[in-house]
Amino acid sequence: MTEVLYMKVFSNLKERILNSEFTNQKLPDERSLASEYNVSRSSIKRALALLATQGIIFKKRGSGTFVNPIYLKNQSMFHSIGNNLGVSDSYRFDGEAPAIELLEFSKELADQETRQALFLEDGEKVYRIKRLRKIQGQPFMIENALIPEKVLPGLTEADMEHSMFHYAEEETKKAVTKSFMTVTVEPSTKQDQELMELMRNEPVGIMGGIFFLDDGTPFEVGSMRIHYKYMRYNSFISLDGE
Asked: What biological-process GO terms show up in the record (predicted)?
């Protein structure tokens, strides 16, 4: 129940921040917020920690917690951060999320490499998912993902028509907030060229790695092969550990 409460507080605070409800961009202290939302201090701490991870707020020692003005001026920079790590939030055209075409959906035993990446035991299964993403009819990304069956035991092909991260949050009451990723570029393959309408000499960007739920549970290992014209990556880094 605590996890559900802190996500509700997080979502409401984020909405209030976007509506400019806080005077001088300063948030109330934790005790006041706990009283206002009628939740524990620990729920408030988790909600604020998630907002800080996304770069939406920052703490100033001795002064309190403030809204990040850079976030308010350019929110699109932060769409690849925190619970907006997914493609549906990161790539939009006039507010429209990318369309999804499911290319593959199956279930299989995890091999040794996958078990190590997702901290699985022998005999555990994963979903193998491949999807093509399009913006305004233009194919721009091929997604390949392996997700532990035990994390989303009821996952179906129909669920793949929308954001996997949003579905995971609804089912587990935990957000996908962390990732370890490698970003590279390489020549496009024949499949890349066919699916994303690329010329033989045109490259693709590759973003591959592991995504984690906010409690540290590995959620997905996979890669995104991206049309070079749509390749971009934004990152928010805190050097003070807050």
From this structure: negative regulation of DNA-templated transcription
Partners of 64 in the β-ladder: 60
> Which residues are within 8 A (CB) of 222 and not within 5 positions of it... i.e. 6 or more apart?
129, 143, 144, 145, 146, 208, 209, 211
Burial (CB count within 10 angstroms: exposed 0-12, middle 13-18, buried 19+), residue 9: buried
Hey, CA dihedral for 180, 183, 187, 190, is it positive or negative? Answer: positive
- Is the CB of residue 121 less than 8 Å from the CB of residue 89? no
**Highest mean pLDDT, choosing among 164-173, 174-183, 191-200, 228-237:** 191-200
Distance of alpha carbon 3 from alpha carbon 175, whole angstroms: 10
User: 1-67 in CATH: which number?
Assistant: 1.10.10.10
Which superfamily does CATH assign the domain made up of 87-230 to? Answer: Chorismate lyase-like (3.40.1410.10)
